[in-house]
Amino acid sequence: MVELQAQSCEACKIDAPRLTDTEITNLISEINDWDLIQEPVKQIKKIFSFPDYQSGVNFLNAVATMADQEDHHPELVLEWGKVTVIWWSHKIKGLHKNDFICASKTDNLYQN
Amino acid sequence: MVELQAQSCEACKIDAPRLTDTEITNLISEINDWDLIQEPVKQIKKIFSFPDYQSGVNFLNAVATMADQEDHHPELVLEWGKVTVIWWSHKIKGLHKNDFICASKTDNLYQN
Q: Which site in A87, A96, B64, B78 is 20 to 30 Å from B87, CA atoms measured?
């Protein structure tokens, strides 16, 4: 199995199928502690903590740079000491494998 | 009258009084198109638009730098083409003059 973080996002067209619940269950087991949001569309969300403001800013910038490279852009919420990351695929109003690839890369950026 | 953007945040202690509704009405008239949020605590919120992702990232960083200089940290939400900025004073669970000073500085950063 090729690890998610080693993969790249593929172009997600508006008619691409959303992941099934079984596919989501399998993929979410490959990433660490992301919450599955059901409404208004399926999303995956995780809160990352930091000891100071600048560390959170640096992490947000690292995720934003990765996101732009993948041409897949999450919602990023910066507050003092924490960054909330939410991935979903706007074009299909739900979850695509791309979201799990990017979640895995996000975890990797936090570890580094 | 000293313009808001020319002022600096003062230390906001936990027993500092929240602004009254009249004070909020007066101060919100000095800033451009910020929405007053009532729940769960009073906040002021504005969405800034951008033609591309990197411009939004740059603006978020400029606001974050200003916020850290003022030692007053907003909620900043980055999405493709937009940044949402929400100011309030955590310690008093509501609005303080500091929030309007920082909102004015935020507008100034957007114009520049």
A: A87
Is A67:A103 a contact under the CB 8 Å cutoff? Answer: no
Residue A79 touches chain B, beta carbons under 8 Å: yes
User: Sorting pLDDT into bands at 50, 70 and 90, what band is A58?
Assistant: very high
Q: Which residues of chain B neighbour A87 with C-beta distances below 8 Å?
A: none
Which pTM does this prediction carry? 0.95
Domains of chain B: 36-112 (3.30.1360.20)
Of B53, B67, B77, the CB nearest to A77: B77
Q: Cβ contacts of residue A69 below 8 Å, gap of 6+?
A: none
Q: Rounding to the nearest 10 degrees, give the CA dihedral for residues A64, A68, A69, A71.
A: 140
Select from A52, A112, A59 the least CA-distant residue to A81.
A52
ipTM exceeding the 0.90 mark: yes
Nearest CB to B53 within list A73, A75, A80: A73
Task: Please report residues of A whose CB lies closer than 8 A to that of B57.
Answer: 61, 64
Residue A105's CB is within 10 A of a number of other CB atoms, namely 24
Mean pLDDT of A83-94: 96
Q: Which ranges constitute the DSSP H helices of B18-112? A: 21-28, 53-70, 97-111
Q: Give the side-chain half-sphere CA count within 13 A for B8.
A: 7
